[in-house]
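Notes from the pairing session

We agreed to fold both candidates in a single pass and log them together. This is the raw record for the first candidate, unedited. Please don't reformat it; downstream parsing expects exactly this layout.

Candidate A
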Amino acid sequence: MPFKNLIAFIAFSFFNCIAASSFSQVVSISLGLDGLTCPLCSRGVENSLKKLTFIEEITMDLENTSATITFKPNSTVSYAEVIKKVFDAGFSTRFLIVRVNMAFMNQSSNKCLNYGGISYQIINSENSAFTGFINLQVIDKDYMQVREFSKYAKTISESGTGCEDKNFREVYNVIIL
């Protein structure tokens, strides 16, 4: 009997690990796209984004001039590459919102979240314990309209990086929506 219990425990643990690894920490991103006026524009952006190997699905919304992008599980994601593909297609962004599952995020402080080589510096919250799914809006001049970015420029310069580890591929200032 003990041997059967051990086998059952190992099988249960194995399948739980597989199931847990299939959940993505970064669930999706939403992009506001400036300049989308027709289906051809939308198709051009979509085709440009499809060249990125970490993207699983793209849903374009011409009416709201936006896109929702989901990523392949366990892939290395780069928002900078996503934005570059949008620019390469001839468009700009007015927002980038990241939907994350906090169950998988490393929270090194009440102002810094880390995952997959990306660090998120929170500039609008004193909360020290995030749970469940949250939306983070990236605050950066390349990811939003200049007028909108200027509202946060002073806060960003006063807050510093807060995420002291230099091993991140990308570091972003974000607000929690």
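Candidate B (folded immediately after A)
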Amino acid sequence: MYGFRVNNIQANVKAHFFISVLLAVLVTVFFGGTVAAEHLAENRTKPYQVVIVRHADKKDKSKDSALSVAGKNRANALGEILEKWNVQYIHSTKWRRTYHTAYPAAESASKEIMIYQSLSQLAEQVQLSGGKHLVIGHSNTVNEIVQNLGGTPGGSIDSKEYDRLYLLEANCSGQVATKIFSYPAQKEHIQAALLKGLPECQGIGASEARLPNP
């Protein structure tokens, strides 16, 4: 009789333990999933327009070359193309050729040039902040920047190619459109594309658009 009571008690203990574990798992899944969903919503991308170019023509082959006369003219032309776009963020590497390419646009828009080092962090910053960005890169980084932002890069950039301009546009559903221009030759086409502006996301809001595919 005593043995029966012990076995019965042990069975009840096991049952209670199983139920406790099950409840703990359900609570964790429910509340953990809710927190994760809220975190994801907070970290989704906003719609953006991003202009990405390689630095303008450099003066020589030195490590930190300045711009050539042609490069300065191209940088000024870029500033003129973007003049009515109302760029909000301007990104450059630390090198003179990229910084000087960005300078005319920054001066025209009265914006600070932000120095970036990590391409992945740059992409994350653009995706989370949304808005209008100008990014100046290098022949071996421009296409990677495009890809990191969900765009479709073109072919590799030759050492003598300075006129390629990417325009990436992310909409409220996270879809990214890629347009490629030659600047300053296609000035009017670029300006027309830029002046379409950013979409206004209804319902969930711009901050809750999906992240584009890497």
